[in-house]
Amino acid sequence: MSSTASGRNGTWRNWGGNVAARPAREVTPASVEELADAVREAAADGLKVKAVGTGHSFTSIAATDGVLIRPQLLTGIRDIDREAGTVTVEAGTPLKRLNVALAREGLSLTNMGDIMEQTVSGATSTGTHGTGRESGSIAAQIRGLELVTADGSVLSCSEKENPEVFAAARTGLGALGIITAITFAVEPIFLLTAREEPMPFDRVLAEFDELWAENEHFEFYWFPHTGSTNTKRNNRSAGPEKPVPQIRGWIEDELLSNGVFQAAQWVGRAAPGTIPAIARISSKALSSRTYTDIPYKVFTSPRRVRFVEMEYAVPRAAVAETLRELRTMVERSGLKVSFPVEVRTAPADDITLSTASGRDSAYIAVHMVKGTPYQAYFTAAERIFTAHEGRPHWGKVHTRDAEYFAGAYPRFGEFTALRDRLDPERRFQNDYLRRVLGP
Question: Which of 110, 89, 144, 138 is nearest to 354 (CA)?
Answer without folding.
Answer: 138
